[in-house]
Specification:
By secondary structure, the chain is α+β, with helices and mostly antiparallel strands. It contains 4 helices and 5 strands; from the N terminus they run ααβαββαββ. 55% of the residues lie in helices and 21% in strands. α1 runs antiparallel to α2 and α3 runs parallel beside α4.
Length: 163
């Protein structure tokens, strides 16, 4: 089922990529950029839905590997940076000092979680900065729990009320 859903979206995104590479018309490039952004978001949502289905059916595969947390964070920030810059948002990364750099776990899922959190924070933050904080708590010898949080400015506004 996942193949049947993803294939047409990837085809649309592939053709859109050709338009972005070959067109010189600014209006067409703007439309193609909008298609790319919306298509990528749609593909991400479909992947999330399919992952939830796997979790509910007990078929989610966790693939533990050794990975470098610094590289993972750098890659994730780099992926989100252009969206933040478009909105003139600052991205700030705080890594608590006791957080281990070398970890063993499902790097793909950790990356997916961080990307989703940051993407939503940038998407729904109108101004200011987005702060990503990463820390770890030792659970037992050789085992840590990784904590990831995002902080964004609080919007102050009043809603009209006819009370």
């Amino acid at each position: 089922m996942s193949h049947e859903i993803r294939t047409p979206i990837n085809a649309v995104l592939g053709m859109d990529e050709m338009i972005l590479r070959e067109s010189f018309d600014s209006k067409i490039l703007e439309y193609a950029s909008d298609i790319k952004q919306a298509g990528s978001m749609l593909l991400s949502l479909i992947n999330d839905i399919l992952d939830f289905s796997k979790i509910e059916s007990g078929k989610m595969d966790i693939i533990p590997v050794d990975y470098d947390l610094g590289v993972l964070l750098s890659d994730t920030i780099d992926m989100i940076r252009s969206r933040a810059e478009e909105k003139k948002l600052q991205l700030e990364l705080n890594i608590e000092p006791d957080t281990p750099v070398h970890l063993h776990g499902d790097e793909v899922r950790i990356r997916q979680i961080m990307t989703n959190i940051l993407t939503n924070a940038v998407k729904y933050t109108p101004e200011g900065k987005v702060i990503l904080t990463v820390s770890a708590k030792n659970v037992s010898a050789g085992t840590v729990q990784l904590y990831v949080s995002v902080k964004v400015p609080v919007l102050d506004f009043l809603l009209p009320c006819a009370c």
